[in-house]
Amino acid sequence: MGGRGSGRRSSYSGKAETNDSMPLDIRKITRKGLLVPGNGFSWQWLVNDRQVAGISIRVDFESMVLSYRMKSTGEVVEQRVQTQTSPCHLGGQRHWFTCPRCSKRVAVLYAPGRYFACRQCGGLGYATQNEGAGDRASTKTDKLRKRMGWEAGILNGDGAKPKGMHWKTYHRLKGRHDALVQVSLHYIGRKLGFLHKLLER
Asked: Is 38 left (phi over 0), alpha (psi -120 to 50) or beta?
């Protein structure tokens, strides 16, 4: 498992991001049928189909025991995390972690350092929170391009109207897309201007 400070830092907020801090989602564990008292299993995190971290989990009654080795020191850490349930509106129950630090009910715990905790206690930000205005515009633009079946990336040009899409809908999405492209290009221009000034020094 990644050691303390292994999470990627954003140049905008200085916070490590949730995607880089080994998110442990109890909903995924439940869907796999692993949340059974007495059950033990391994949990892995993959990047491009390659394992980058892994832990051992033992399920007890209303708790889990997480065991892992710190990459930075080689130390084996064992942490017990309490679990709880809440009723679903249509019957059944939903499982939750209890944050070891603040006792808040959460579905996902993260490990930006030695121990797992909720996002707030770990001082983590979502990747979208760490984006600048230009990055957010580019992200929204790519979502619109995907919806219209166009290749991602504003420099790839516009595609055709998707088959079956009403012209009114197409023009509305195209107008929003073009406005976001202008925002993205504006911030790209600002970044290039800043880099140009640095190179002139």
From this structure: left
List the one residue out of 113, 109, 92, 102 whose CA is nearest residue 26: 109
Would you call 193 helix, strand, or coil by DSSP?
Answer: helix
CA distance 148 to 165: 9
Which residue is associated with the tokens 């290749």? 151
125: left (phi over 0), alpha (psi -120 to 50) or beta: beta
Task: At 95, list the tokens.
Answer: 């499982």
Q: How many CA atoms lie within 13 A of 181 on its CB side?
A: 15
Measured distance CA(191)–CA(199) in Å, rounded: 12
- Which of 116, 144, 135, 121 lies closest to 24, judged by CA? 116
Q: Report how far apart, in Å, the C-alpha atoms of 166 and of each of 163, 170, 174 are.
A: 9, 6, 12
Residue-wise pLDDT for 126-142, tens only, equals 544 445 667 778 888 88
Q: Is 48 left (phi over 0), alpha (psi -120 to 50) or beta?
A: left
Helix (H) or strand (E) holding 139: helix 133-147
40-72 pLDDT, tens digit per residue, is: 999 998 877 788 789 999 999 999 999 998 877
User: What is the C-alpha to C-alpha distance for residues 95 and 29, in angstroms, rounded to an integer?
Assistant: 10
**SS3 at position 132:** coil
